[in-house]
Amino acid sequence: MYNLRNCTLTSFLCWALLFSMHVSGQGMPITAPDPPRNWHEMDLKTDGFYGISLKQAYQFLKGKKSKTVIVTTIDSGIDTLQKDLVSILWKNPKEIPGNGIDDDHNGYADDVHGWDFLGGKGGKVDYTETTEEVRQYFKLKSKYAGVNTAPPGMEKEYVYWQSVKTTYDSTITKAHNEIKDLTLEVNVLTATNYYIKRELKLQSDQTFTKADLDRIQTQNDTITQSKTIWQSVFTQIGDNTTNAKVLKDLTEYYAKQNNTVNPDLDARARIVGDDPDIRDTKPYGNNILKAADASHGTGVAGLIGAVRNNGYGINGVADNVRIMSVKAVPNGDEYDKDVASAIHYAVDNGAKIVNMSFGKKISPHKEWVDEAFKYAAAHDVLLVMASGNNNQDIDVKPEFPNSTYLDGSSTDNVINVGSSGPKLDTTLAATFTNYGKIHVDVFAPGVKVTSLDMDAEFNTADGTSFSAPIVTGIAALCLEYYPELSARQLKQAILESAAPLTGTMVIKPGSKTEKVDFTTLSKTGGIVNAYKALLIASKMKGERKK
């Protein structure tokens, strides 16, 4: 442990350094350098990184013609002016932009590139929400708080309340604990950020990276230890990030946890104006796709289909897609009504693949989402989902949405994706990823993956949220070149591309030392491969109905 008595900074800066050392392990961490920005595209055999063999995939496709595929991202929105995305945005062919009229009579006026189910009048957007368990807790609290037995006729709801309260208590405890740490972190990083920028002679709007820290040569203890803190932060998060991005993400997460403890439970009614507990056909929302929280959705879209080989940004996995953005995910938990509405919107407007990088612990209207999943299946639309980042076995503790329906049935148009790291060693399974031999289908790169961000920025991040769109991109690529394949066949090609890594022992997600065979973590026991998926797809007889 770091010796606090050696610290010469102010007391909270000392604690920050102590906290930074604690997070990283004992002392400054010795870690491998960041993988290449495009490691998720690479090939294990030729490059040494366990990517999806995208170069080999495009070599296989050379000379073949493709057909445009519409892909929907149900997410936090999208930066419609992002240079790498502008030309691949879906455009509603029957809608005249900006006239305030529902030209195609689908219930949504000016839905040129998609729709925002969190929008309201005056261009407002309900992007700051709380978790579902908090919403449900306060909804049921007046009825059941202090009640020890189920009232007659209310047995089912009472059991539901008990589940809600258990989850709520756990969530609130975690939020309180994290807020204490986050308050310290925000204060410390804000202060040390000031010292570093002053030492580097940066303007208020300029940023610094880990590489910039190497330019600092000083005997001043405050500057030296500020540098040490930021070196630790960059080492943990990734060399490609900036101080501004770190502070932005930290303050956003702080706001999210604070909204768990002090929720604005009236935001939905005040901004959107609908009742999320009534499933009807009344249109709601607006067409505002870029709000303050559109970073996540922009990154997801970029991984799927950012313009390839244009000398800017990143290369998306698929080379001929149109991204339809549907905003239904706030900085908090999504509503079941919005998820169901978003899926219906995507299907009705021609999407063939839908990416769903979100999830939550409780689903009060799961029957609505189940119906939407079945609607997508009936229209031959593939749904690709992130497994979640709670390092838990979702065969035992399910996340929502999922494809195990309330009536016990399931459909064959859903792929659930876990996250893998860049190296074929004990760290192959991401520490944060959810897993499950039954409910997680396949793994894909999700550690230090670089994609687009809002306002011409880029973002390197961890998460199954990035693994899912990589799989979505592979599915789109297969469908572009083999347009007769059904959703079921796309899923089959992707799952068969992931060779089981029998005998590969990895640290179990959520553990520090326990090792398990990688094949125990998903249905396939492997990592998706674009080249192999295309090879398999090329040998299939298409069954998509025209």
Note down, in words, how this protein is organized.
This protein has 546 residues and is of the alpha/beta class. The chain is built from 15 helices and 11 strands. The strands form 3 sheets. A 7-stranded parallel sheet has the order 2-3-1-4-5-6-7, with helices on both faces.
Proper CATH architecture of the largest domain = 3-Layer(aba) Sandwich
User: CATH homologous superfamily of the largest domain - what is it?
Assistant: Peptidase S8/S53 domain
Radius of gyration: 24 Å
Strand order of the largest sheet: 2-3-1-4-5-6-7
Oligomer: single chain
Residue runs with pLDDT of under 50 for 5 or more positions: 1-30
Care to count the β-strands?
Answer: 11
| Residue fraction in strands | 5-15%
The CATH class of the largest domain is identified as: Alpha Beta
Mean pLDDT: 92
> Helix- and strand-based class?
alpha/beta
Main attributes of the structure:
546 residues; alpha/beta; Rossmann fold; seven-stranded parallel β-sheet; two-stranded antiparallel ribbon; 11 strands
Brief overview, please?
This protein is α/β, with parallel strands linked by helices. It has helices at 11-24, 44-47, 54-61, 132-144, 155-199, 210-213, 221-237, 243-261, 267-272, 295-305, 336-348, 366-378, 464-481, 487-497, 530-538, and strands at residues 69-75, 114-116, 321-327, 353-356, 382-386, 414-420, 442-445, 449-452, 458-461, 505-507, 515-517. Helix content is 38%, strand content 9%.
SSE topology:
Blueprint: H1 11-24, H2 44-47, H3 54-61, E1 69-75, E2 114-116, H4 132-144, H5 155-199, H6 210-213, H7 221-237, H8 243-261, H9 267-272, H10 295-305, E3 321-327, H11 336-348, E4 353-356, H12 366-378, E5 382-386, E6 414-420, E7 442-445, E8 449-452, E9 458-461, H13 464-481, H14 487-497, E10 505-507, E11 515-517, H15 530-538
Parallel strand pairs: 1-3, 1-4, 2-3, 4-5, 5-6, 6-7
Antiparallel strand pairs: 8-9, 10-11
Helix pairs in contact: 1-5, 1-7, 3-15, 4-5, 5-7, 5-8, 10-13, 11-12, 13-15, 14-15
